[in-house]
Amino acid sequence: MIKVRTKAAGAVLAGAALMTGLGAGEAMAAASAPSEFQVSGSDGVRAGYSNGSVTFYERSAKITGTVKSHTKGCVRVEFVVFSRGQVMDVQYRTACGLGPGSSKGFNFTSPALKGGVSEVRIDLEAVEASGATLRKLDKMVIKP
To answer: How many CB atoms lie within 10 A of CB 118?
Structure first.
């Protein structure tokens, strides 16, 4: 089952538009309130989890959080960024092992996209150290 979370289009304006490196004259003026996410191993193994937030801007999305392994193997979280139904960016974050060091933080912003980001799909997978997927654990879709 895919969980979907949608935020209202009402944006929070932080004064005037902030000029950024998105391109000549482009601004990251409006940000949505952060949408929280949590995906976890719910297949009885409880291999690990990832949690954090997605903040949508005019043309990009900022993704922050943590991925945590509860297994001797590895847990990978995949972030798929869509614009108008097309995959525009895919990023992975992986945590391996048990105990200290089995948690990895992340904080990144998707590329600035003409038309903006329409959704971010978050997939949690159990993986081998080589990166080969063993099984899908959980999935969530967040929309602005």
So the answer is: 17
On whether the CB atoms of residues 137 and 2 are closer than 8 A, the answer is: no
Question: What domain range includes position 138?
Answer: 3-143
Residue of 88, 81, 86, 91 lying closest to 119 (CA atoms): 81
Q: What's the domain count of the chain?
A: 1
Could you tell me the CATH number of the domain that includes residue 53? 2.60.40
Q: How many CA atoms lie within 13 A of 33 on its CB side?
A: 7
Span 29-47, pLDDT tens digits: 568 899 999 999 865 557 8
pTM for the whole structure: 0.78
Distance of CA 114 to the CA centre of its chain: 19
